[in-house]
Amino acid sequence: MFKNIFKILAVFVIGAIGGIFADQILWPYFIERPLFYEYRLEQAPVYVTERKEIIIQENTALTEAVEKVGKAVIGVKAKTKRGEILEGSGLIISSDGLIVSLAELLPLGSDFSFFIDGKQVPFQIIKRDPKQNLVLIKVEEQGLSTISFADLEKIKLGERVFLVGKSRPQNKNWMVNEGIIKTFNKNYIQTNIFEKTVLNGSSLFNIKGEVLGLNIISSVGEVNTIPISKIKSFAGF
């Protein structure tokens, strides 16, 4: 009986040694010979560039969109009767000088200033609607940069968006932030972006560079947007 067990163990040990020898020495030796070289097996390459390329493309699209829309965003400044200084942004909606901004940035009886590309320009208040928080202005400029209006029928939850505004009206530079659409209806759009109130009146855009509306920054920094559909109706477009 013990002889049979010994034979089984011997066969097992010899087989194991033979397997190791073939795998570690014999097979590597033959596979490098000219006769077998073309049949050798190699591990398939792993490609990890696809996600990286997608991220790069999205970032490029965002920077291109910002450059595209930036010149349509202007600086707004008001000095109230009490001496309070209000600063924010507005949006050029026609090349002949129509601009829309928030009524809360331009209270009645205040001294107003509007800045295009850092230059103060003459203006006229055309229309004001405190309930909708909108004001329409006409500046004495022609050939201004304009933007395309987004189709709100195509808006989607989770859609990538960004805002552009002026932190200081006289500055030529803009401030930019990005996020996604959190919720929306016909009266407002809410994003997951948080910002300082100096960006009141900034504009919200989709990744194509189409304007979605004007932003109202709450006291806690939430960014809610007056949809472009309401702005177009207010401006008579």
H/E series: HHHEEEEEEEEEEEEEH
Arrangement of strands in the largest sheet? 5-4-1-2-3-7-6
CATH class placement of the domain at 148-235: Mainly Beta
CATH topology of the domain at 148-235: Thrombin, subunit H
The biggest sheet amounts to:
7 strands, antiparallel
CATH hierarchy: architecture of the domain at 148-235: Beta Barrel
Strand content: 25-35%
In helices, the fraction of residues equals 25-40%
Give the N-to-C terminal Cα separation: 102 Å
Jot down its keywords:
4 helices, alpha+beta, 34% strand, six-stranded antiparallel beta barrel, 237 residues, seven-stranded antiparallel β-sheet, Thrombin, subunit H, globular, single chain
In short:
The protein has four helices and 13 strands.
Could you characterize what this model shows?
This protein has about 240 residues and is of the alpha+beta class. Among the domains are: about 70-140, Trypsin-like serine proteases (Thrombin, subunit H, Beta Barrel); about 150-235, Trypsin-like serine proteases (Thrombin, subunit H). The chain is built from four helices and 13 strands. It has a seven-stranded antiparallel sheet with strand order 5-4-1-2-3-7-6, with helices on one face. It has a six-stranded antiparallel beta barrel with strand order 8-9-10-13-12-11. The longest helix is centred in the N-terminal third of the chain and has 30 residues, at about 1-30. The chain is globular. The N and C termini lie far apart (about 100 Å). The model has no long low-confidence stretch (mean pLDDT about 80).
